[in-house]
Design a protein that fits this description.
Elements: E1 14-16, E2 31-33, E3 48-50, E4 65-67, E5 82-84, E6 99-101, E7 120-122, E8 141-143, E9 158-160, E10 172-173
Parallel strand pairs: 1-2, 2-3, 3-4, 4-5, 5-6, 6-7, 7-8, 8-9, 9-10
Length: 174
């Protein structure tokens, strides 16, 4: 109900769920499954949103994949992001090229200084432990549940292992 109601020239879109792709006007080849998924999308194309309010605030972002409740919720113009899991990459708005797999992975990440963040976090709350959550950092790799960088602005850190914490930029920790 109330899906694809604003669509004008957008084609090859699929919307299932209340207000899914509701604001889409010219965006093409989007798939939205779930209440409010891709709700505010207007011109963004080639997005996949599966789960309640996934990619909800996306307007122009393209080539994003969000699977899970709240996944990529706040994304507006960020492109080529992948978020799989409850609250994965929820607060990302404009950053691109992030990958978050696991509940709460990169939850607070929102690099706005430039469009390219290139962060990868795999595991439960990877990059969002409550300590040194990555917010504006870039080019980080966090693998394992509860892994954290050395700071919110960390750059080029590799952190592997349950609960491991980074020691500084350009340093790997196992």
């Amino acid at each position: 109900y109330n899906s694809l109601t604003a669509n004008t020239t957008g084609n090859y879109n699929t919307a299932v769920g209340y207000e899914a792709l509701n604001g889409n006007t010219t965006g093409v080849e989007n798939t939205a499954i779930g209440n409010g998924s891709l709700k505010l999308n207007t011109t963004g194309g080639y997005n996949t949103a599966i789960g309640r309010i996934s990619l909800n605030q996306n307007t122009e972002g393209q080539l994003n994949t969000a699977i899970g409740y709240n996944a990529l919720l706040a994304n507006t113009t960020g492109t080529s992001n992948t978020a799989i899991g409850l609250n994965a990459l929820s607060y990302n708005t404009t950053a691109s090229y992030n990958t978050a797999v696991g509940m709460g992975a990169l939850y607070d990440a929102n690099r706005t200084a430039d469009a390219n963040a290139y962060n990868t976090a795999i595991g439960y709350k990877a990059g969002d432990t409550g300590t040194n959550d990555i917010t504006t950092g870039d080019k980080n790799v966090l693998v394992g549940a509860s892994t954290a960088a050395s700071s919110a602005t960390a750059s080029n850190q590799i952190v592997i292992g349950y609960g491991a914490i980074g020691h500084g930029d350009n340093i790997a920790v196992i």
